[in-house]
Amino acid sequence: MKALVYGGPGQRSWAEVPDPAIVDPTDAIIRVDTVTICGTDLHILGGDVPTVAPGRVLGHEAVGTVTAVGPAVTTVAPGDRVLASCISACGRCRYCREGSYGQCRGGGGWILGHLVNGVQAEYARIPFADLSTYLLPAGVSDEAAVLLADILPTSYEVGVLNGRVRPGDTVAVVGTGPIGLAAIRTARLFSPGHIVAIDRADSRLEAAKRAGADLTLKPDQDPLAAIGRLTGGLGADVVIEAVGTPASFELCATLIRPGGHLANIGVHGKPATLHLEDLWIRNVTITTGLVDTSSTPTLLRMLAGGQLEVGDLITHRFPLDAMAEAYETFADPARSGALKVALSRA
């Protein structure tokens, strides 16, 4: 079969690799029907995730059809249409029993496209299939469902829930790529008073308005003063970092009010300065996190019920074998205007 293979920093190829096979009794094999590319994949290619070894098949967001299951799998069967979660869960370790699947110590966590071969391929092995796949209702499209593999639960859990967004809050989202836009969408579920979106790109700020942002700003437009005008000088109740650079994190720390929450979602490849000399006295809570995907069943029900609109986050579509073109498009949003890309089997 063909798959997107990581060759080391800056190197990738759509290459022939062996077909996946059942290794453990809890495995399933899926035919990949729709897959997407994540900003984390770009971080891997940039050398920011050194735990990914050359030769690894990348990708951790897919919808597919089950073609085979191991003898211990009981919840899915060949022919089932499933969402493959970005997080694998053994279901037995302390963290899984607490619902913290992202920290699984039984061989799961974020392993697809990281520690084991991923889903940017024609077929993929899904470990711990009973807890790491979700049956899809007939009315949910592949393109909508694939956004629940990672960006929707990540933005909701690591951004909105960790940030403790409440009704009436002023929420600032720094970075309005796919994760930031999903954070805006899911923050709206809690009826905040204001959502302020901050980004450098006009196209992404326009997308933020469509997602529900009340005010859009560029970093050089003095967001601190603008948020101060909205809040009587206090600052934002919740700030969500959705970029993963030192500058974006440090901007977030200036925007938060005393007693507020700064929720970091971005994947950081470089150190950021934490100005504790300013923050220690302000009762600020800073959270980090890897998604657990414990919210995926809830989000899937909301999607099926029409309570969550996500389809417009996909801006570019490709056949599965156009992986190289899709990566080029996704990696250059200033030129392409890309948010999320979808690659589907013909």
From TrEMBL:
Biological classification of the source: Bacteria, Bacillati, Actinomycetota, Actinomycetes, Micromonosporales
InterPro entries listed in its UniProt record: ADH-like_C, ADH-like_N, ADH_Zn_CS, ER, GroES-like_sf, NAD(P)-bd_dom_sf
Cofactor(s) required, per the database record: Zn(2+)
Keywords, ordered alphabetically: Metal-binding, Oxidoreductase, Zinc
The keyword Ribosomal protein appears for this protein: no
Keyword Hydrolase: no
Tree of life domain: Bacteria
Domain Enoyl reductase (ER) residue range list: 7-343
Protein name: Zinc-dependent alcohol dehydrogenase family protein
Organism: Plantactinospora siamensis
SUPFAM superfamilies linked: GroES-like (SSF50129), NAD(P)-binding Rossmann-fold domains (SSF51735)
Family: Belongs to the zinc-containing alcohol dehydrogenase family.
